[in-house]
Fold each of these.
Amino acid sequence: MQISHTRIFQLQRLSAIGLVIFLTTHMVVAHYPPGHLDFSRVIERMAYPLWKGIDILLLASALVHAVTGMYMVITDVEKVGRYRQVLGWASIILFTVAFIYGTITILAFRLPAETVNLIP
Amino acid sequence: MATNGTTRTVTIRLQRFNPDVDKKPVMKEYTLEITSDTTILDALEQIKATQDGSLTFRRSCRHAICGSCAMNVNGRNTLVCNQRVNAHLDRKGAVTVRPLPYLPIIKDMVVDRTSFWEQYQRVKPWLVPPDDVPEKEFRMTPEEVAALNDAEKCIMCGACYSACTVTAVNKRYIGPHALLKASLRVLDPRDTITNERLIEISGNDGVFRCHTIFNCIDACPKKLNPTQAIETLRKLAQKREAFVAARKERQKSL
Ligand code: HEM
Ligand code: FES
């Protein structure tokens, strides 16, 4: 897989902008919300499709950013240069697997009413 | 500048390496008398003349213009001919001088600068003017000159090149010195191979490898700004076609 460096650079900067927005939102809402934090609040929020969408965008930004960043720093090393192709494919596979797995996890959140029935 | 007459004894710690004898570089200490005006290059000359004639280093102009005497002083790359020993002494009255890091050492302070020059050549550091050279001189606007950011003042000492962490691990990276020169040519309205230049500098070994850590700026004895030049080239590489078209338009009015 050979993506031009210009594209990788652009992807990394764009995803960094995504991170500024979504990571900030995530830290405020998920980690340091006003008042106390418990599972019922998380599940209530995660029931909204909008929050699922926001979390999927956070996931995508973080993965694109981390994968392009890792690719760039690893291929900086001259001796690794000849494995660029392999590393490119590895990055894309890593992204795809992690994105699908993360998305499934985010989509798994259900409304409390639906989950209550599952508790014996 | 007048010497104030007072002398003091200092320790000069030098990294020595003789490929015929040593397996790896060793540190050696030399004690000598200096005045407040003694430069680090003076100190090296003094050691060579009075203590060890085998000490090897490059120097020529002694006026910070030829770029031969770049070395690493107390961990920072600098020219040694315009730095006073006094200004670099640590608490124990010692200064440590090593050759430029991350380059193969030939002997003592002399490093192999082959990759430095190869990368420099790669960016075609010369101007490629239009075929039909006008009768009168080419005229650049003051703004166009200002945009060059003094890049023409580079003395090719290699301080930035050897301070860059990317060149440290990758000698195929074009490097701050050559990218600074490339920016000088790309921004020159007279140059006719802008497209080719921008393609070359945006490839695998080009501007997008830079991590913007400013080591090159820190090292430059002429206070130039290779990082800014790289940033400018990144912008132009991303709108290459529009920039090349504008350049052709501009050349009609040179
Ligand atoms: C608001 C948050 C963030 C911002 C604004 C941001 C911004 C940036 C920028 C601008 C670069 C390019 C640096 C360069 O020029 O080389 C970068 C590199 C990188 N980032 Fe982030 N980043 C953020 C969060 C993250 C997170 C959460 C991760 C890990 C998941 C991450 C992983 C990386 C990696 C691996 C690199 C490559 C290292 C390098 O190029 O030096 N970043 N980041
Ligand atoms: S001797 Fe010429 S720059 Fe130092």
Amino acid sequence: MSVARKKYATPVSKPAREIDEHIVEILSDSGEGAQKCGQSFGAISARLGYGIWTVEIIPAEIQPPARSVDGASGNRIRLANRRITNGGDKADLAVAFNEQVLLGRLRANELKPESIILLEDKWRHSDDPAIAESYVAVHADLLERGFAVHEVPMETECLKIVSDPRKGKNMFVLGLLSSIYSLDVEAAHDQIRFIFGKKGELVIAANQKLLDAGYQWAEDNLDIKFKIQATPPVEPNIVVNGNTALALGVMASGMEVCAMYPITPATSASHYLSDVFEKVGGVVHQAEDEIAAAAFAVGSSYAGKCAVTITSGPGYSLKQEVLGLAVMAEIPLVVIDVQRGGPSTGQPTKPEQGDLLTACFGSHGDAPKVVMAASDIEDCFYSVITARRIAEAFNTVVVLLSDSNLATAQQPFPRPEFCEEWLAPPIDQSPVDEDYLPYDWNARTGQRRRVIPGQPNGMHTLTGLAHDRRSGVAYNLQTNKEGIRYRSLKLAALQKTIKAPTVLGDDEGEMLVIGWGSTRGSIEEAVQRVRADGHRVSSMHIKILQPLASGIREIMQRFDKVLVVENNWADSMDDELIDEDNRRYSNLGWILRARCLVDIDCWGEVGEQPIKPGTVERVIRERLG
Amino acid sequence: MTVRATEFLRRAGAPQHSLEDYAGCLPRWCTGCGDNAILAAVQKVCREEQLPPEKIVFVSGIGCSSRFPHYMGSYGFHGLHGRALPIAEGIKMRRPDLHVFVNTGDGDCCSIGAAHWVHATRYNMNMTVMMHDNNIYGLTKNQASPTSPRGTRSNTTPRGSLLEAFDPLQATLGFSNLSFVAQVPDWIPDLLFQVIHEAHKHRGFSFIRILQRCPEFQANRWEPCMQDPSSVLILTHENGVQLSPVLARAYKNHQEHDPADLVEARRIVGTSEQLPVGIIYRNPNVPCYEDMRKPDRLYTPEDVKNGLNAELDKFTIWPRD
Ligand SMILES: Cc1ncc(C[n+]2csc(CCOP(=O)(O)OP(=O)(O)O)c2C)c(N)n1
Ligand code: SF4
Ligand SMILES: [Mg+2]
């Protein structure tokens, strides 16, 4: 670890303005490397001890037309002098490889007024008069609107070093940003070595040169320099996105089979897992469809250790019948749903938490299953381990919800220390008693011992039909009722072990804001902001959504108002047609109202971007009245 | 005749499994249902091979035929309509020690589960698949299936079905990575036993289309074939099905067919006036998916720890010294 353990000095060239945090966006056409630039910028910042949260800006198409308003590809990096839990509000600085991708972000209202804009100037000299004209007009308009626009001859400068500037501009920009945020150039050089390590010294050197050129250009030509106080980490941290964290969690959980079918935004978890799972004895099976993937996972679980299937909304829908089977036959199974905008093909790359009700109540008939959600990147890792353990302890289906917000966001978290208890024990192949009953339900908890093929005397036929304790087809109603009751009791048994969620802020007050999943960071930041103004607002984040812990009602009752905030649809009472009788609540809103008989309010948003803390803050202030 | 290993063990007094060891619940199929004959043949194959019941898993979909696992004394998994194959694949993936059999109906396999059938053939996992083809949906009470001959009257085709019957043999002979295809009727017990036995011994995805009688809804479907042995063409081979003298007398139409010959297999299936019976195609050299994907060694918790840590290293930011 000689590279990583190096000490980095803070460069002092010209006076820097001390700030607490900044949000930076790097925007390009897709394929120009803005994402790599953004991720590197984030990684360097994390290494130096800044709090960071990075968000990918992804166009819907693989190759949208060049210079298109909807085609922005890139990264948003929020860096701060403290731990950061979300992508923040509007950006302070944007680097754009052309003026069109920038326009897209401006229209989406993602930039602060007067923010700093670094704009590639090559379009001013374009041979195509229409392009040059557009550039000049946008540039003038930006100045008019008060943005601090700086034209940067990115291509011209890069051409001094490489022949194809499309491949090099991003490292030049990394240099610009290193200068602007007073980052250590050595750390940036190390990062380049890390990314391009496999490509050989020549490539590394060329990219380092590009970086230096960017750095120098900014030093010589820009009068912008910031300094954010870093807190160098004292413990090892890892920086990954949510999907990689999920995949690492699968490895750490001791599961051995992952069956999947590609679907955005879940796929990258399986990509990474496909690359590394075999190193710990696992296997990723790309099935012919999601139904087959779920069925394959169920078959694997039945004959061995608990398996996992990873998908997103539309694929999750296809798995419903199989999930019913797993519930009925009591086969452990972990299902990961990295949610996206729905319904139908919806918005594949956009965040939404719209699958909660489906997760809790999907399939058919009475199909009780456990539902939990990851709330940040670290939680993606540990949730898989927990999900596997619950699935195996209760022989049940555990649905783990993530979403496209977490899928691509990066945030450092303490490096996990492997613990053998995370792993499933080896499968039992010992003989069972002659009088063994495959569904020997515990009268109190509904639990049973799972017997695995290969165990002598354990032979029985597992079935999706209603069955009795011998796993024989239940031809009478009473037997069916017994099975339903025990499968339901298992959730109650699990529920008794779940602790009530903690409250952030005071235990009582004017308003309690409740959330689940990836909105945690934004909600908590919003609550802290209004608390700073003296409002008695607290928040609570629910991790296990089914079964719900005891005590939630009591917590809610201590507040004047309860507001559920979610990244899914809720009818607005401001709509003319909407009233208390027809209002459709947000997903968790429905559940909590039904479960707790408390008249709670809800607010939901489905949009292009993760919910911002500023948006939650605004809603809280409005509802406080 | 050489003495088979199992026979040798039996004679040597090794623990022996009898037919009863392979019997489960009492079958509830209709009287005269061909599934009964298939069950009897399968149990005989298990006994012949002396398969330990705890090492056998019968996987099925939904349908009359898919009740099969309940009637075996082994492990069984009565799954979902159409999904027996992916469930069986999941079972086999990490459990090469288990003998996996699949029972599926014509609706189960050729209709709702058709995509899985194509891909299961491609994966070529070591399992024996019996498609009980009664040309009808039995369990749901008489609806046309893809394999129903044109003109079949059923509850969903009261004036006769309009479409030409789907031919599972022609279809499967077109799938990639094919390794074993056979056809056999349920009413010739000797051949039924031989074909299932050969299928079980074949290492790979062994697909058998079993022509199955459904007296309830397709009462006379196979009657002509049963009455007239000349409507059947039996494919024999020294490494395949062999005709006993009795059968050879009854079934005059028989020919040598080398199961390795795919072109001839396609020709027979595509042009024969008679019903081909026997092993149509077999290629023992197609690699099995579970072999290709098996772990290179045993992984201990220590290995998992090391593997995980090696990955974490890639993403770790170490503190300054
Ligand atoms: C998803 C689903 N759709 C429909 C059914 C109803 N269903 C059960 S068996 C069956 C057809 C059975 O026909 P086949 O597969 O030929 O089996 P057979 O009963 O003839 O042996 C149908 C449609 C079901 N169980 N599940
Ligand atoms: S309906 Fe047909 S297939 Fe079903 S059990 Fe009766 S005879 Fe057999
Ligand atoms: Mg049928």
